[in-house]
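Pinned message: reference record for Glycogen debranching protein
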Amino acid sequence: MAQQWGDNPPQLEAALRLAGMTAGRETKETDDMDLFVCAGHRSTMIGGQDGGFPDFGHHIPDEMGGLWSHPIKLMDGFWLHLAETADPAGGAWLEKADAFRNYAYFNEHDYAMPDLGLEAARSQFCPDEHPGFVVEYRLRDTSGRDRELTVVFQGRTELRPVWFSEEAGIEDAPDEARADEELGAIVAKDRDHSWFVVFGSDAPGCEPHVDIESTLPSRTRTAGKGATGSLRMQIALPANGTAELRFFIAGSAQSEAEAAEAYARIRDGHADMRRAKRLRYESLLSLSELDIPDEALASVFDWAKIHSEWLVLDVPGVGRGLTAGIPEYPWWFGCDNSYALVGLLAVGRQALAVETSDLIREASERTNGNGRIIHELTTWGLVANPGNTQETPHYIQSVREIFDWTGDLKYLKRAYPTVRKGLEWLLGEMDPDGDLLPEGYGITEIEGLNVELIDTAVYTWSALLAGAEMAELLGDAEAAHDWRETAGRLADKINTDLWLEKEGLYADAMARVEAVRERMPVYIARAEGMGADRAVREMRSMQAEIADLPPDEERPWLFKNWVINTPMETGLAPRDKAVRALARMGTDEFTGDAGTYLSGMYRTQMMTISTGVQAVAEARYDRMDESLRLVKLIASTFGRRLPGSISEISPDYGCFVQAWTNYGIHWPIVRFMFGIAPKAHRKELALRPRLPSAWREAAIRRVSLGEGACAASLDLEVALGEGADLYKVKLDGEGWTIRMDLPQAAGARIYVNGNLVESLEDGPDGEAIIPISGCGTFEVRVER
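Predicted structure (tokens):
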């Protein structure tokens, strides 16, 4: 292996990896939408990789960037001007940066200013404890002479609420700014609300000024109703020497006193806050440490851990949890999190998964109260969509996974009433014809086709089995029996009515002929408008095929959306059907150069979630080489838009960091390739390692299992040889047992710590299954 256990302490290994995590690019040729994020739990900065702060945004036109402390925006941006004190007219603004560097928990911009005999580097980071920012500039003289510089730091406020607040009557008003001489800072307030921002510096002699709008340079004029203030100071810069400047920004959606307190705490404690953040990131990297013969993929595996952390928001009065994506979706989603929270479990983020799951469930209960899970929750605590049908079973499925990995019985008891109501809602109100296929929009939200969709049906099957497990554990035997029986009937129906034998695929939907026929002209017109000739031809052919069918005939429909992978993703599909479907899904009809198409008809856009679901589906049926190919397609888009990150729409479009991407990287590798499947409440661990053929040696260390009294940590190392395979297992935890499922081991001699195993179970596919009682370190050798 690349590293043997015990070579370095885990924290040192993590510190070394964190120090090496940097990604950058030259920025002279970047465009305005090449963006970056600097993230903390209480604040988020979104700007240009070239150092600017462009106006952009879909949800809030021109306002999705800038400096945020959710649920409000604080500023549109900031800019720095430098001039010789003796020649103020000869100065210049730091405009387009020459280079951008992205680190795990901060970022930097480099500027060359040869006309001024200067070089500058700007860095920023967000403390996690307080709603604010630290911006630092390092200036270096290249003129070779002592000098005095006049520095102007100009900030443009924009105190406004998050998207969808207007629907609740929360309207933005103009900002009003003042210079606070005592604080040495600019203080601004939204005229009609108690929303405040404070920005200043710890530089001696810093003078705050409120600027007159008509005198502002064009680069600092932004959309919105903000105010502009500046901080002015003189600094000495020795010949060939350096100088540092620091600026601090803080805000509050409650009061000026709270904003001022946050500002003072950040100004006085920023060094300790930065150190604490570094140590916490090191701790995150030390969990589920991956050692594989693919350094590039191992690096992306680590960066994906970091991406999840960028998306954590803690909003007082609303909650803390994993948000969906930056820059357009910095709030919480039922669907997105049902994927992303499962991905978190594989890398030791169980507590975050529980927090986020609770947040979604509590908002759903307040909004719906009938078990229906919401679609999206803003950071103001407003629900913008009460939930698509698919999200309820998908959420229930995620509850089971979270409980399996945490063993948190209190969490399960909190969630179970919603689980029970959710299943009743799905098979009651949402299944008016009683055929077990709930109606309503699924993940793809096909306009006008809110019918019986494959993803909703499949996730309902999975939710029924998950609910049955929960019910059994909590003593609800009748519900457990009914749900398990219903799951069996639903599986039969999906595998009969929604399986298209001629196509070797599952259908997207079950719907009446008339429901599809009346929407078909809209779909064809849209495809024509997009220049999707292939999709036009396929839909015209479908339109002709159904022209004379009875309008009330219900039949399956194939639109070739990526969700037809869900029967394989969940393991519902029998192996013969799964292999046929996956083989076709893996061709260029459904898979492009950066992942799985959203539609095999259009063959245009690809997303990390469509690719991730297919990667999980392949792994579910031990097709690990195919699964690894898809994981690597996701990884191949790393850094295409933002250095150090992966875009939501592959290879380089949409949100430049997206939570559910972890589902296609962490989950197939940890859950299936290393085969780690705990039942933490029973302190039972199933290990079923199935490595891709390219990995003859691989290891994963410090995989967190369970919490509290159920807590354990796993190291697993695999070395596959010609005549023997070696598995090293280290399990730290009280009272756990292991059940190992070893591939191609039926009839082999199996030794545990040198002792021949006399009692083993042969599986149907040539595997051997052995129990290992107790914890500690075990060496399992399979000799053929």
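Pinned by admin. Summary line: The chain has three domains: 10-281, 287-497+558-670, 675-783.
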